[in-house]
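Quick one: sequence plus S-adenosylmethionine SMILES, need C-alpha cells.
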Amino acid sequence: MNRVDATGTLLFYCRPGFEGEVAQEVSAAAQAEGIEGFAKAKPEAGFVTFHPHDPARGAHLAAAIDFHEMVFPRQMLREAVFLQDLPAGDRIDPIVAAARPMGNRFNGFLIEMPDTNDGKSLSSLTRPLALHLEKALAKAGMDFKEPRSPDRLHVFFVGGAACYVGVSAIDNSSAWPMGIPRLRMPGGAPSRSTLKLAEALQLFLGPKEEEKRLQPGMKAVDLGAAPGGWTWQLVQRSLHVFAVDNSAMDPALLETGQVKHRREDGFRYRPPDPVDWMVCDMVDQPSRIAALAAQWIREGWCRETIFNLKLPMKKRREEVERCRDIIAEGTGDVQCTLRIKHLYHDREEVTAHLAAIPPPRS
Ligand SMILES: C[S@@+](CC[C@H](N)C(=O)[O-])C[C@H]1O[C@@H](n2cnc3c(N)ncnc32)[C@H](O)[C@@H]1O
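Reply:
Sure thing.
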C-alpha cells in the first residue's frame, strides 16, 4: 500500500509564462477549501508549487481539486519533496530515500522536467539516469506496474542537481508525460492549428466518446476555418463541414466533396439546419466568442462546440472567468457541460468544450 507522506506540497506543471495563472487557480481552490498556504511561482519556470501552512492538509487539497476542471496546469502532483544539491556522483540514493515513504506500489513511473529550454537541456542527464534510477527503485522493493495502484510516481528535475519527487493520482491528473500529448503534424493538414483541435478532441472526449460523438456523416460548422486545419480533422473523421471564412480554403479539402466553403461573417452565419458540431477558431475578443458559442447551444444550432479563446491581455485568468459567466448566462435554461483548458498546442489562448446535456430517454 502507498503511504501518504506529509510534506503537503502540491506541484503543478504549466507552459512557461503562465505560472501566475496557475498560482491564482490553486490559491483560489485552497481558499475555497479553507486551507491556508502560499504559492511559489517563478516567472518562466514552467512549474508552480503550493505550500499549505499545515502540511497535513496537502493531501486534502489535492483530493478536493478536480484537476480536469483546472484551466492552466498541465499536471498536478501531491506530497512533492524538493531535493537539492544532489551529489553529481550519487543522485540516485537521495531520490530513492525520498520516494520510499511514498509507497511501494505504483501504476507508472515518470522522469520529467519543465517545458523550458533549460528543462530540455536536462534530458541529456535524465536519459542515462532513468535506467539506473528504475533499477535502484526496484531494488528498494518498488513496483511501477501495479494496475490497482491509484498513484503514479514522478521525479521532476528542475536542474542538474535538483528535483522534486512526488505522486499523482491516476484519476486526477494527466496521463501524458510532462502533461504533454505527443501529436505528429499530419502530412495532409493545411495548418499547424490542426493539432489544437486534435488535442482538444483527445482531451475533452477521449477515444471512446470521440467514436460515439463524431460519427461519419455527421454535420459540422467551422467558423474562421481558413486555411482548414480544423476542417481537416473533421473531414478525416468523415464529417460534412460548412467552412465559414472570407479567406481561401485549402483546395484539396474542397475537392473531398465533404466541405462547403461559405465566405461569410462567422458572427452572422446561421446553419441551414441544426448541425452536430460547431468549432470556432476566429481571432476576436474572447467575450464575443464565448457569447457566440453559448448562442449556438441555446438556439439548438449545434449540440456541442469546441472553440478557442484568444488571451492577448494581461489578466488572462480573469478573462477566462468572465467568459465562463457569459457562457452560463448565454446558454440560459439549456443544461450544459463546460471545460476550458490551456492546451499544449495553445499559446496565448485557451480552448473550451461546451456541450448540451441531452434529456434522459423515457
Ligand atoms: C487562426 S485562423 C484559423 C485557422 C484554422 N482553424 C485552421 O486550422 O487552419 C483564424 C481565421 O478566422 C477568420 N476570421 C476572423 N474573423 C472572422 C469572422 N468574423 N468571420 C469569419 N472568419 C473570420 C480569419 O480569416 C482566419 O482565417
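Residues 294 and 331 are 5 Å apart (CA to CA). The first strand starts at residue 10 and ends at 13.
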